[in-house]
Amino acid sequence: MVQELNKARREAGLSQQQVADRLGVPQSYVAKIELGERRIDVIEFLKFVEALDATWSEILG
Question: pTM value?
């Protein structure tokens, strides 16, 4: 799932900072998720997906 979020962010043309700004969190939060250093729950996943202007089914295929 981490790889899919990272790929979707890059395909959306967004930087980690832009996603972080949309989520109202520090850039390091996004980086740690994408590096697999921080796990996220379903609610956080859905918020991340929303910040990418995507749907969960687009991310998970």
Answer: 0.89
